[in-house]
């Protein structure tokens, strides 16, 4: 099990980096629907992966973040709409 964790822990940290980026974008109100969907996918995958390795608290937190992201209104950077 330890060897498997060694093989996938980098992916777990990549999911965390993606989540950090989306949180910053949400705070700046420059998040688009693609970013939001990517963040939802990352949290879903993160929740499952960490649960597999017994990190139940981390899994519950990731699931809660996923739910919050699902209920997040889509924010679009107004500059991206200007042609």
TrEMBL record:
The organism's taxonomic lineage, starting at the top: Bacteria, Bacillati, Cyanobacteriota, Cyanophyceae, Oscillatoriophycideae
InterPro entries documented for this protein: HPT_dom_sf (IPR036641), Sig_transdc_His_kin_Hpt_dom (IPR008207)
Protein name, entry field: Hpt domain-containing protein
Phosphohistidine modification, residue list: 44
Transferase listed as a keyword: no
Recorded coiled-coil stretches: none
Keyword Membrane attached: no
Pfam annotation, one family: Hpt
Keywords: Phosphoprotein
PROSITE patterns according to UniProt: HPT
Residue ranges of domain HPt in the record: 1-83
